Amino acid sequence: MHDAGKTSSFFICGDCTKVIEDVCKVGTHGFAIDEQLNLNFVRDVAMKYGKGFGGNLKLTLALSLGLLSPREDALISLAAGGTQGYTFAPG
């Protein structure tokens, strides 16, 4: 992908907290996470490795079950994601 001048990313399903540093070493430009992960932790690790990251709108709790306000969840995720390398998306 890099040799072709393309940008690459992948999605990680489930709680990959234990392997998130390995995820950053895969060679893609970034990754998207599942709603189960702590976005502050993911942001810090992604920034350490210079990777883009995305996700974390809680689909199950906010959109499917209505247990969280989607608006409040979005605001929390946007604040935690920060202003560099973060793409807000369903997790």
Structure write-up:
The chain is built from 4 helices and 4 strands. It has 91 residues and is α/β, with parallel strands linked by helices. The protein is elongated, with a radius of gyration of 13 Å. The protein has a 4-stranded parallel β-sheet with strand order 1-2-3-4, with helices on one face. The longest helix is centred in the last third of the chain and has 12 residues, at 70-81. The model has no long low-confidence stretch (mean pLDDT 91). The chain has helices spanning 20-24, 39-49, 59-64, 70-81, and strands at residues 9-11, 30-33, 52-55, 86-87. It has one domain (9-84).
Annotation keywords:
four-stranded parallel β-sheet; elongated
- Model regions low in confidence, pLDDT < 50 over at least 5 residues: none
The SSE string, one letter per element, is EHEHEHHE
Distance between the amino and carboxyl termini: 24 Å
- Number of H/I helices: 4
What is the approximate shape? Answer: elongated
Number of strands: 4
Tell me the strand order in the biggest sheet: 1-2-3-4
Helix content: 25-40%
Mean pLDDT rating: 91
The major sheet is characterized as: 4 strands, parallel
- Rg measurement, Å: 13 Å
Strand percentage lies at: 5-15%
Helix/strand class: alpha/beta
Please indicate the count of domains. Answer: 1
